[in-house]
Amino acid sequence: MKVLMVCLGNICRSPMAEGVFRNKALENGIGLDVDSCGTANYHVGEHPDPRSVKKSEEYGIDISNLKGRQFSYDDFNKFDIILTMDRDNYRNVIALAQTEEDKAKVKMTLNYSYPESNMDVPDPWYGGEQGFEDVFQLLDQAANAFFKIHFDE
To answer: Which CATH number does 2-151 carry?
Structure first.
């Protein structure tokens, strides 16, 4: 299975999500390919925000080598599931979908831990240290629910 994490700039939420999901897959011996990107091109080629890197490192996850990239239509062909961090990015990705199959791949990340809620993963950019901790915890919960749904027998 291949999963893509999507936020706006690909420097805060989606790289943290990539790290959390990748780490859980490795810990559980699950073959999951995970990537991340942003709907905007503001940070293409940049490493994640240092606060995202630091928060991930606190939990033993290294995302320092990731580099931002922008979502493209080709991602619909490369990934089985596309997880968006908020409603704006959900709409931006859906707007690029060309088929119902494309649209069916796109889901709100927190709908795994809070079914049918369509809750946003808040952007921690202005939230200080606690904002990054809160986001990490939300992503961890979503990842646990994701793995239970897709990989528990």
So the answer is: 3.40.50.2300
